[in-house]
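S.,

Sequence below, as promised.
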Amino acid sequence: MTRVSGFWYLRLVLFGVFSLLLIGGARAAANTPPVAEATLEFDFRPVITFRALFVGATPEVRVQRALARLNKLTPEEMERPIEQTPFEVDGVKGIGLHIGDNPLFNVLASDLDPDEKLTLEQAAKRAEVVLGEALRSERELRQPALMLKAILLSLLATVLAFALLWLVRRAARLLVTRLQSVIEREDASAKLRWARHGWSLVLRLVQLVMGFVWLSVAYLWLTFVLSRFPLTHPLADKLGGFLFAMLFDLGSGFVDALPGMTTVVFILFLTKALNDAIASFFTAVKEGRTQVAGLHKETVSATHRIVSIVVWGFGVAVAYPFIPMSNSDAFKGLSVMFGFMLTLGSAGIVNQLMSGLVLVYSRALSVGDFVNLGGTVGVVSEVGVLSTKVIDMRNEEVTIPNAVLIGSSIRNYSRLAGERGTLVSTKVTIGYDTPWRQVHAMLIGAAEQTPGLRREPLPFVYQRALADFYVEYELFAYMDQPLNRVPVLSALHGNIQDQFNTHGVQIMSPHFVMQPRNNVVVPPEDWYPAPAEPKR
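The prediction came back faster than expected:
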């Protein structure tokens, strides 16, 4: 038993030591820093990226060694072709690039980028092509004739660019001056008069176009000049590649957006067609060619607006997902901003809107009615969604919020006019010593003599009250034009005075101490004292 126990004890110890060694090796492997990749660039051209060790040399060391070899090449050697030689070292495959007996660098299988999915031969071929262009550029730099030609072409391109910019500026200035003179002419057509108010916008648009043209010319000039020199040719390729990439992105984006935009246009077209059909229906109802229960002439316009808003809202909601970039963060940010603004300012607006709807659907007034709105007497000129506008007797436009109108009484003198006309009235108080039949006859006679009051139906008089000292009479008459209410009442009051003076009845509410000996009247011969003139 002792030997067996000792044997198992030895096995446990060896197992523990072996586990510690494995853990230590794993930790050492985990703590080993990854190999940093390095890119070989020659004459501003990225030739190849090294990602692996080779014979103990890091990618950075490999780049330095390759640059040292390339810089030692003579112009004659640069003209010779680049050759490839495959090899395999310690199971690592690679291809060596060299010019004659001068090795340049090696491309390893472990240097390949998995994302590019290139074979070793393809990667070596690409490096050979790029290096050949770099060597050719370096060789041309050492030829004075080519450099002189590049300088002359660059100078010529500079002169042409400045001439083109001057011509563009001159043409823009002449165009703006000509357009301004046409707009400011006194006999300019009405279609051009609007441009006077938007002239600053026109100038900004011209400046924007000018800036775009100048930048385009400068960009093309810089690309051309950089492409003339071998050393800066890669920069010209990058600029040209950026321009073509941008144009390609714009073109591809436009092509990709065509299906969505076509769908949006189709949906909006259907929405417009439906809205036009609804407009024709409401026009027929408004003109009386179509009768719909519950839809009155006064509420047709408001109902039409509400239905149009609902139709267009539904159309926009359906078309919105098809708009390009509708799911972008910019659109979402704008939606949140507008929603926040609407939430903050919607309380008062919604109150006015609902008050306007109540006002319209109650049919309390309409455009052209002669009304009394809380002491404001005049003609309704506009019934809006937020306020109502009234033109009073002084020809002043009074704007009254709809919420205020809902909370006050509305007197409409035109609504019940119909065939009988609008009923107007005036009051007079006469003492008990005057026969009431005579008062009735004089008031009706005054109404019949007043222009603007109808003979049919006949005017009539009510005795409104039997007060302590007098009787209160109220004359009622009909008129066709309620907008002339004030001047007609003024003429009626004058005729009433003439009638009472003619028949010797005093218009004097008995607020006096004692009855005068003679009636307080004006005799007919005294009706027209200076500066009054008799009626012709």
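The domain at 422-511 is CATH 3.30.70.100 (Alpha-Beta Plaits).

Coffee later?
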